[in-house]
Amino acid sequence: MDENILNPDDLLGNKLISEEDDDEFHHLNNPVLGLKPIVKKYLGTVTDVKEVGNKFFFTDSEARVEVTVVTDEIIRVRLAPHGVFLEEFSYAVPKQEQKVSVFSLHEDELEYRVSTSTVNCHIRKIDFFISFSDTQNHITNQDAVPMHWEENTQFGGYYVFGTKVCNTDEAFYGLGDKASDLNLRGRRFKNWNTDAYSFGWNQDPLYRSIPFYISLNEGIAHGIFFDNTFKATFDFGAEDRTKTSFWADGGELQYYYIHGPHMMDVVKSYHLLTGTHPMPPLWALGYHQCRWSYYPESKVMSVAKGFRKNQIPCDGIYLDIDYMDGYRCFTWNRKYFPDPKKMIKELAADGFKTVVIIDPGIRVDDNYSVFKEGKEKRYFCRRSDDYFMEGHVWPGRCQFPDFTNPEVRAWWGGLFDELVQLGVAGVWNDMNEPAVFGAGTFPDDVRHQYDGFRGSHRKAHNVYGMQMVRATYEGLRKLMKNKRPFTITRAGYSGLQRYASVWTGDNVASWEHLRLGNIQCQRLSMSGVPFCGTDIGGFSGEPDGELFTRWIQFGAFSPFMRAHSAGDTKEREPWSFGEPYTTINRKFIELRYRLLPYLYSTFWEHHRYGFPILRPVVLQEQDILANQARQDEFTYGDKILVCPVMEPGQTSRPVYLPKGQWYNFWTNEIADGGVEVMVPTPLETIPVFIKAGAVLPEYPVMQYVGEKEIDEVKLNVYYSNHEVNSFLFEDYGETFAYEQDIYLEKKFIVSGKDTLLTIEQTMEGLYTPRYENYHFKIIGLPFKPSKIIIDGKTVGDFVLTEEKCYEFKFSKNFKHIEILK
Ligand code: GLC
Predict the structure, then answer these.
(1) Hey, is 215 helix, strand or coil?
(2) Are 284 and 316 in contact (CB under 8 A)?
(3) Does residue 62 have an active-site annotation?
(4) Contact present, 616 and 526 (Cβ < 8 Å)
(5) Which entry of 297, 320, 430, 535 is annotated as an active-site residue?
(6) What is the whole-number distance in angstroms between the Cα of residue 507 and the centre of ligand 1?
(7) Out of 88-97, 131-140, 232-241, least confident range
(8) Rg (CA), the chain
(9) 3-state secondary structure of 407
(10) DSSP characters for 746-763?
């Protein structure tokens, strides 16, 4: 193994030091001061290889590198500087199943090559450079410097580094909720979960750590998932435009190379590793109303009544920290809420689900049962000297459960029993970065059980929030028997999607934040966090009616739709701004409910196949260079293109339509894609386009999910002269029966010609919906139909509507429809 003493240029080139460390760096290399320079170690020449199953172990005689074939597209690389690997354990990748059958190892004079049917991993003998190529021998990813590390007792640091070549036109996406442009190129980011109240554009780090990025170079995509929970840094050609680096302040250099070639393939493969979101209860896809805080009970009830009075649909109402007794989790302030059970029952009778906040800080108070029990059982985190870790949060002096301990998670999960008995349907986990007033977070030396793999807070910090919401989700799942719990978390790490939805934290009521929220949601979606949304209207500050309405319009197409605001702001319900805003807000929230079956089906597509719900344009058309800079428009599922309005007073805006044909949702006009079009943006609408050939399922407007028994589904069929597939997923909407195949996946194939439109339907699954009634609306039919034949029966009753669409009904499940000229 080589031991290189770095010169300052190397050090900067490899970005070993952060800007804050600059002074120290100069000291360190100052011969006058006589301090020893940093000693940084690199892999040397490969001397041997061993093959064990799907793993290959390469060594330079001291360090070892493990190359694991995970799937045909995924290869994992790990480094053990002294030849001994850490035990296999990851909160992000629950089980690593090998899903590959054929792979091989080749050796020639210069290199070893591990190959699957789609990817080669090259290990260059002379210097241990690792690179990846596709079957056309196109290099997609290569080391710029061999894997390296630093064990510095003088500075007290241990770092592991991967440094890759950054190509001239390479673009980078992913990393979760970063508040920057969609393409991350030219920037450096830190992963360290942080309570970032009123964060600003380019502020970093934020609440979550998702160490996964997607690279797009010359039209070919690959992903890197650096599964290391320590504080990590990613540099996408920021300090040196020829290098992409990622490094962590501890742990193992372990990354997964995920081959594309399409960005969507990378996203799907990332889900294969880290899992997908379980199906949410259908009501959770409705509109949610939150505020810090609605209290007392009469206020909660009057807000709820306001929705029904104004006929604005709403499914979820939230209780923020003031519902508790002195902010003690799992207690109630009986002055404000004398009879929570009665209140929750009344809310439920009116169609509202109650969601309550639960924070990790447990008040130090010997008269408080949760604290007493946690203390007795030693469930709270401790410092290195064995004293309990204490910090101030809302309740005052607090201690904090160690959620990385499975026993603590089980205990925590059980604490929700009373809330579930009271009828609470969802739980909101906040402040779980973990946030501590003054100190920011826990000291580094806090100890964590880490599922038996013990570690300090340096290792556990980024997963703390995820393990908290995991404990919450798993507890609720048990307590709610077969009902799907709804959970939402502020902090998280890769894989959090298996347990919760997220919101982007404490944003601001500004147009800039609306723009930022749009990018953050798109970015979260492509980073494996599908169920995401922003605080509609902005958490702090005051939106005017226009900003709030524009945000509602964006929110109607966010996977998670919740308005929330800080306590010192004015009222913020959808009717608070008067007309014309109330009417427009209602129209968009109603649209959300009309399209619920579409969103629910898109969720299924995520859950089952790993597709994101929001899809940036570049994710769909990566071969078009200009798309790398497009970050305003996105598709919601794959059939609806949305471009929110993010400027005040805007009356029209350009929108890029991806290739193919698109119908303007508001006018039904058809337009060719592959170009930018100007679209009018009066306050009443935002640009929404539907892909030609789509079948958009629609439910009647309901004030809440379950208000009406669905006895008919409307199928909006958008004519296309190409064959296009759509689908509709249906099930009970609130149980886990879908895990036993009790669901129905209806697939529609639309295909049009000059004189004929056909719609085929196939079905999979064991669920039987209550209805068999279909209401068809055919949009854009280029001919006047003479006949409609459904499974051999002629339908006589079809009408041409004012919108120039043909509508007809059919009361039986169908297989084949022909609409003839
Ligand atoms: C944090 C949360 C915010 C919540 C507040 C009070 O700031 O991000 O959503 O309302 O705490 O609980």
Answers:
(1) strand
(2) yes
(3) no
(4) yes
(5) 430
(6) 10
(7) 88-97
(8) 28
(9) helix
(10) EEEEEEE-SSEEEEEEEE
Band of pLDDT at residue 39, cut at 50, 70 and 90: confident
Residue 14 confidence (pLDDT) = 31
Q: What is the pLDDT of residue 29?
A: 42
Catalytic position from the list 195, 433, 535, 605: 433
Furthest C-alpha separation in the chain = 96
**Torsion sign, CA atoms 218, 223, 224, 230:** positive
For residue 344, which phi and psi values (nearest 5 degrees)?
Answer: -65, -35
The 3-state DSSP class for residue 159 equals: strand
> Do you find a cis peptide bond into 401, omega within 30 degrees of 0?
no
Coil/strand/helix, residue 663: strand
Residues whose CB is less than 8 angstroms from the CB of residue 101 and which lie 6 or more positions away in sequence, other chains included:
none
Contacts of 743 (CB under 8 A, 6+ apart): 604, 729, 730, 731, 737, 765, 766, 767
Distance CA 561, CA 444 (A): 36
Strands, E assignment, 561-701:
561-563, 614-616, 634-636, 640-642, 652-657, 661-664, 670-672, 675-680, 688-691, 695-698
**Residue nearest atom 7 of ligand 1, based on CA coordinates:** 506
Return the residue matching tokens 């001994």.
84
Distance CA 319, CA 355 (A): 6
Q: In what order do the strands lie in the sheet with 640-642?
A: 614-616, 634-636, 640-642, 688-691, 661-664, 670-672
- Given a contact cutoff of 8 angstroms between Cβ atoms, the answer to whether 313 and 286 are in contact is yes
Query: How far is the centre of ligand 1, averaged over its atoms, from the C-alpha of 401 (Å)?
Result: 20
- The pLDDT of residue 98: 65
Residues 6+ positions from 781 with CB-CB distance below 8 Å: 719, 752, 757, 805, 806, 819
Catalytic residue check, 320: no
C-alpha 333 to ligand 1 mean position (Å): 18
Strand order in the sheet with 64-69: 48-52, 55-59, 64-69, 74-80, 254-259, 220-226, 212-217, 171-174
Ramachandran area for residue 396 (φ above 0: left; ψ -120 to 50: alpha; else beta):
left
Separation CA 252–CA 76 (nearest Å): 12
Tell me how far the alpha carbon of residue 506 lies from the centroid of ligand 1, in angstroms: 7
The count of C-alpha atoms lying within 13 angstroms of the C-alpha of 310, restricted to the half-sphere facing its C-beta, is 25
- Asked whether 538 lines ligand 1 (CB < 6 A), one says no
Q: Pick from 430, 431, 562 the residue to mutate for probing ligand 1's pocket: most ligand atoms within 8 Å of its CB.
A: 430
Going by C-alpha positions, the residue among 732, 818, 796 that lies closest to residue 279 is 732
Which element (helix H / strand E) includes 103?
none
Contact 47, 61 (CB under 8 A): yes
Strand 774-779 with 713-718, pairing:
parallel
Q: Is the CB of 195 under 6 A from ligand 1?
A: no
Geometric angle at alpha carbon 636, from 632 and 640, rounded to 5°: 95
pLDDT digits (tens, 9 = 90+) for 428-451: 999 999 999 999 999 999 999 999
Q: Hunting for tokens 């003493």 — which residue is that?
A: 5
Amino acid at site 524? L
pLDDT at 37: 52
Q: Within 13 Å and on the Cβ side, how many CA atoms surround 300?
A: 32
Q: Name all domains of the chain by residue range, CATH numbers in brackets.
A: 2-274 (2.60.40.1760), 709-820 (2.60.40.1180)
Per the document, the length of the chain is 821
Q: Work out which ligand 1 atom sits closest to the CA atom of 535.
A: 9
Beta bridge partners of 713: 774
**Both structure tokens of 723:** 């064959």
66 is catalytic: no
Cα–Cα dist 651/643, whole Å: 13
Instruction: At 408, list the tokens.
Output: 């603590």
- The reply to whether ligand 1 has any atom less than 6 angstroms from the CB of 357 is yes
User: Which of the listed residues 490, 503, 506, 536 should we mutate to test ligand 1's pocket, taking the one with most ligand atoms within 8 A of CB?
Assistant: 506
pLDDT at residue 152 greater than cutoff 50: yes
Q: Which helix (H) or strand (E) holds 67?
A: strand 64-69
Task: Give 768's DSSP letter.
Answer: -
